[in-house]
Amino acid sequence: MRWLAVPAMLAALVSVASAADLEQSAAQHERALAASHRLMQAWLRHADAKTLLLPDRTGDPKRTYTPHNSGADLYPYLILTARLTAPELYAGRMRDMLRNEIRYTNALKGVPGNLELAGGTLGPPSLFGAGEYAKDGLITVTEYLGRTPWTSRLIDMVAAAMEQAPVDSRFGKLPAADSELNGDYLQVLPRLYLLTGDARYLAWGRRIADAYIEEVLPGNFGLPSMKWDYAAHSGDRRLKLRDHGNEVIVGLVTQFALEHQLGSERVAKMRPVLARMLDRVLASANADGMLYNTIDTETLKPVDDRLSDNWGYLYGAMYTFYQVTGETKYRDAVRRVLRNLPKYANWCWEPSRNALVNARKDEKLGSFDGYADAIESALYLVNREPVPEALAWIDSEMEVMLSMQRADGHIEDWYGEGNFNRTALLWALMKSQGVRAAPWRPGLKLGALREGTGLRLWLSAPAKVEFDCARHERVHNWGKNYVRLNEFPEWFTVDENALYEVNGPRAAARVVAGFELVEGVGLEAGITTVTPR
Question: Is residue 191 part of a domain?
Answer without folding.
Answer: no
